[in-house]
Amino acid sequence: MMRTSIATVSISGDLREKLQAIAGAGFDGIEIFENDFLAFDGSPQTVGRMVRDAGLEITLFQPFRDFEGMPEPQRARAFDRAERKFDVMQELGTDLMLICSNTAPLSLGGVDRAAADLCELGERAAKRGLRVGYEALAWGRHVNDHRDAWEIVRRADHPNIGIILDSFHTLSRKIDVNSIRSIPSDKIFIVQLADAPMIDMDLFYWSRHFRNMPGEGDLPVTEFMRAVAATGYDGVLSLEIFNDQFRGGSPKTVAVDGCRSLKYLMDQVSRAEPDIAMSVPGMPPRIEAEGVEFIEFTADEAEAEDLTAQLETLGFKKSGVHKSKDVTLFRQGGINIVVNREKEGFAHSSYLMHGTSVCAIGLKVEDAAATVERAKVLGADTFGQPVGPGELTIPAIRGVGGGVIYFIDQKSGLSKVWEIEFDSVDDDQRVDTGEIGLISIDHIAQTMNYEEMLTWLLFYTSIFRTKKTPMVDIVDPSGLIRSQVIENDAGSLRITLNGAENRRTLAGRFIAESFGSSVQHVAFSSDDIMATAIALKRNGLVPLPISPNYYEDLLSRFDLSPELAGQLETNNILYDRDDEGEYLQLYCPSYGEGFFFEIVERRSYSGYGATNAPFRIAAQKRSLEPSVRQIVSA
Asked: Are 262 and 6 in contact (CB under 8 A)?
């Protein structure tokens, strides 16, 4: 496995905090970004000792700017500056410096001129046992392509001069990555990696504010890395991430994400290129998650009664009682809802923190043990608590928000948990809820602070065989919600991630009032939402009322028949259509601190009704208590 590194500029904090976070995440080394060193009040020897005491190495000292191709007297001064930086490097205890291609207006073009300068610098570096790596900046004045940088290094023809490859600089300019395959591996001194969302903007600004971890953005970083690996390169892989959110976020979280992203990237490359030795020891392949097996709520006695009443209104039947715990199973179609009223254990702790909420979800996977093993290698925390006689030990991990994710598979017998751990309930003990027609869990919506979204995204996509959809903006009257979906190819597992930017939005209020609880709503599927709406009304459900103006607009937007529009309005059903099909949505009133259930019908439609979200949010805000409504609208 290649050694891993991260630039100190990638995370927040002072140098000591950065080192602690980087070492704790499991990196092998760090790039010392010069500004972090200059802001530190200790000597270079002290910094070097701190790094080594943390169990790390300094893989690179950077950046050195505006060097090659300068006219005199600037050229002489550039060599003098380099000598002083060599002094610092030797005191730090690192042997590699990065020179980025010149951006100075005074710089002169010419491959041979640049090669001559690097060759002379290589001679000076060799006398000190140091090396210099040359990198093509995407906005370099004369050199902005790694192919030109390599030609300069090739002509310099010095053992102490090599090339530094950076995925952002190559991919942002859409340069063919296969050109890397012809570079000798011993001339690649270090590889820097970064992803980014696809944004059409100035390259410098894009690079300095919007980079993210490999796998979090839209650039083909895996293809870049496959080309690097094909050269036989087996050196350091280092993250260089400029991101405003990362620089203001938790250094521990960003460092853990970084280490996870590199392991995930190496795993992808090794599986795409079996002959390339980049595999991560002990990591099973990404796991196929087939869907949601169950959702577990935690509640106290009184609130559990309210939750039970709402579930029964939705047509769920009490189907099982746990043999040794105060846990009840409700079922309908292929949906399993668990209500946990235990006074100890994880569920109770979750209740004390978040109130009545979803404390755990269970996912159906192809191999539960392999899922936990992959998650562990990728830095996830496993979860376990004492089990009673006859109970199953269900493999589980902690999710990003602290909730628990259990894994159920067929091969180990875990799918028999309902028969093993629960006593069935006789018909005469059940409330007759009638036939409502809910079939399965269509999707789960998790809400988090916007700056945490990339962490959640990487967590799911690196563990499970899922894909991400493009991010969309949801308009709340009090701000934007950023929404992105994680789903499998079959559509049997769908998780929407909703990032709130402030607490005045409905999503932001949910996070604040539930102290970080993540699952804000659960959507159930129906094959006939009109029939379901009628049955629910018969059960006493009063759906979320939608403005009549919405239905007037539907007639003009979609050219619906007056009869269909009337049915939609009568039942407060939202409607959307795309080139593939139709989507119908019905919302239940909010429960507790903003949690709610949704019912959907898909007619060959793969989206999530994003265009309807502003009207749903407005209706939910109208339904809040007046005092609460003022808070979220202030």
From this structure: no
Cα 221 from Cα 241, distance rounded (Å): 14
Strands 289-298, 479-487: parallel, antiparallel or unpaired by DSSP? Answer: unpaired
| % helix, strand, coil for the chain, step of 5 | 40, 25, 35
Residue pair 553/564 in contact (Cβ under 8 Å)? The answer is no
Distance from C-alpha of 190 to C-alpha of 5, rounded to nearest angstrom: 10
Please give the pLDDT value at position 513: 85
User: What sign has the CA pseudo-torsion 105, 108, 110, 113?
Assistant: negative
Span 163-175, mean pLDDT?
97
Q: For residue 438, list its beta bridge partners.
A: 526
- Going by their DSSP bridges, the two strands 327-332 and 335-340 should be labelled as antiparallel
Q: How far apart are CA 574 and CA 612, in angstroms?
A: 7
Question: Which residues is 131 bridged to in the sheet?
Answer: 96
Find out whether 32 and 62 touch, Cβ atoms under 8 Å: yes
Residue 583 near residue 573 (C-beta atoms within 8 A): no
Residue 446's CB is within 10 A of a number of other CB atoms, namely 25
**Which of 27-31, 238-242, 501-505, 574-578 shows the lowest mean pLDDT across its residues?**
501-505
Alpha-carbon radius of gyration of the chain: 28
Q: Phi and psi at residue 190, in whole multiples of 5°?
A: -160, 155
In three-state secondary structure terms, 10 is: helix
Q: Which domains does the chain have, with CATH numbers?
A: 3-272 (3.20.20.150), 289-429 (3.10.180.10), 438-633 (3.10.180.10)
Q: Pick the range with the lowest mean pLDDT from 314-323, 371-380, 429-438, 588-597.
A: 429-438
Beta carbons of 440 and 335 less than 8 angstroms apart: yes
Q: Which of 159, 109, 161, 158 is nearest to 135 (CA)?
A: 161
Closest CA to 364 of 443, 289, 287, 286: 289
pLDDT in the model for residue 428? 64
| Alpha-carbon distances of 413 from 375, 394, 419, rounded to whole Å | 21, 10, 11
Each residue's pLDDT tens digit, 412-463 = 989 999 999 999 998 666 666 778 999 999 999 999 999 899 999 999 999 9
Structure tokens at 90: 């030797």
Per-residue pLDDT tens digits for 526-558: 999 999 999 999 999 999 999 999 999 998 899
Of residues 122, 130, 204, 124, the one with CA closest to residue 161: 122
Chain segment 492-505, per-residue pLDDT in tens: 999 999 999 888 89
